[in-house]
Amino acid sequence: MTFYDIELIKRNNPIQDVVAAHGVVLQRSGSHLSGRCPFHGDEHPSLVVYPETRSFYCFGCGASGDVIDFVRRAEGLGFREALERLGNGRAPEGPSPQSRDGLSLDDRMILTAASAVYHEVLLHTPAALKYLDDRGISMSVVNRCRLGYSDGRSLRQYLQRRRLSLRRAAQMGLLWRDGGETMAGRVVVPELRGDQCIWLIGRALDDGHQPVYRGLSLPKPVLGYERVRGRPRVFVTEGTFDYLTGAGWSLPICALLGTHVKAERLAFLQRARRVLIVFDADEPGRKAAGELAERLGPRARLVELPEGVKDLNDLGRLPEGRATFFKLVKRAESDALETEEERDATGTR
């Protein structure tokens, strides 16, 4: 018999993200969000989503429940099918000393400790907070994505106090051989799986600090994997700050952290029925986006950024950036639909 951890499923699938992934544009109003209900002809927003209680209620048609109920109703699924769609959240059958990402329990403890230390340091570093604000990253995203900053000294001291292995921290790329911190002077973005950190990437505050981006000495994961896992509609972008911009808009978004992606790294997109590709507007980005769309087939949609806008983060910093983006998404999906209809009409599919 298969057992499902219902609470884990709800925790790993924030209801506001799932509702947004189904095409509902949500607007915040105090502690809740509202949008047009997808379950009836809703001319005025009557669907209310309550992140704190992980629930929703429509004042128009009476639809209500949790994230599982929403997926069941939205996709016409049974209870078990909805659990599978949300990533199943099966309770583990037994302890495993090493996970699929190759990290041991001690490795995860070290990385999670680093993420926590960096986050605390960031909250007390005005220059780093200003940098993020200038990049259009809100405090809400800072806290939800557990962003951090390395001051070059706090991590080593913390690891020593907790008797966590400095040697292993150096092997994973957190410390130099002399004990200095590799992420010093950088905003740090963790890749979280549940409450645990499995990877980190640092971005220098000063473009003159090379390399501008620094990752760990570990296999590079997909950034934001849990935001898109099992989702029917996902956004895929290139860079770290593009991902953070999308996360700030509650999109089911991930970053491939580059343009050259091996086929096996795209396996997480198997369940997605629609993949919206938002790569950089330069020539390498456009070329890579086209190649990825070809690999994904008719599920893929290319979202083209406006003239003069380099990437999604650039767009997000414009006064009407968010509204412009959703118009571009709508256009991309409409153009693709028209192309499919033309193929059907001419019999060239």
Give descriptors for this structure.
349 residues; DNA Primase, Chain A; DNA primase DNAg catalytic core, N-terminal domain; four-stranded antiparallel beta sheet; 39% helix
Main CATH class of the largest domain = Alpha Beta
Main sheet specs: 5 strands, antiparallel
Residue share in β-strands: 15-25%
| Total separate domains | 3
Radius of gyration, taken over Cα atoms and rounded to an integer in Å: 21 Å
Instruction: Please report the number of helical segments.
Output: 14
Helix content: 25-40%
Enter the CATH topology name of the largest domain. Answer: Dna Topoisomerase Vi A Subunit, Chain: A, domain 2
Distance between the termini: 43 Å
Question: How many β-strand runs?
Answer: 13
Which geometry do the CA atoms define?
A: globular
- Tell me the quaternary state: single chain
> What topology, given as strand order, has the largest sheet?
1-2-3-4-5
Q: Structural class, from secondary structure content?
A: alpha+beta
pLDDT averaged over residues: 87
SSE order, one letter for each helix or strand: HHEEEEEHHHHHEHHEEEHEHEEHEHH
